[in-house]
Predict the structure.
Amino acid sequence: MTTYSEIFENNLAWIDAKKAAEPDFFENLSLDQKPDYLYIGCSDSRVTAEEMMGLQPGEAFVHRNVANLVVSTDLNVMSVINYAVRFLGVKHIIVCGHYNCGGVKAAMIPKDMGLLNPWLRTIRDVYRLHQEELDDIRDEAARYNRLVELNVQEQCLSVIKTASVQLSHTQSGCPTVHGWVFDIKSGRLKDLQIDFEAKLKDIKKIYNLFE
Ligand code: ZN
């Protein structure tokens, strides 16, 4: 494990490596940001954002919370989406969940989790929405994996329900919303192939916010 003081040594080594590859790296970085991607992922320490995607500083705007939730009353995530879409003009919004997610696991256990209750309720609501499908899965590990995927799908819908995404997509064709799951055991990213255009069309009957 890395010690606290080693972090600062690592930082200096990282600066050297970046400058060796590109002498003006930090000067260029300080000018502005124009990332193509907004990444919304889990806070889990095993699921990195830029590293697993091979992205460099400046390429992704990142928001992380427990179980990668997009709650419409959460001013934090809503501000991130609004800023990323309206001001940064991101082309893609990615909601990335992961198998073995502790937040999703906790939500599967119907018991009092104290302060976490309102947060976990969003995942429990996903379970309730898809109860028939989930209850048909006998194997608990498989059911848990499927809830991780369905949670990503529902959080993608939550992103699509925002006025900023609907407006921007109509005006410029961007952004597109994607749902991914990271498999910790293999390191692989799985694209859930969410049909963004179809989902956008589906939800507009109820959630159309600007026309
Ligand atoms: Zn997680």
Summary: The mean pLDDT is 95. The chain is about 55% helix and 15% strand. The CA atoms of residues 7 and 13 lie 10 Å apart.
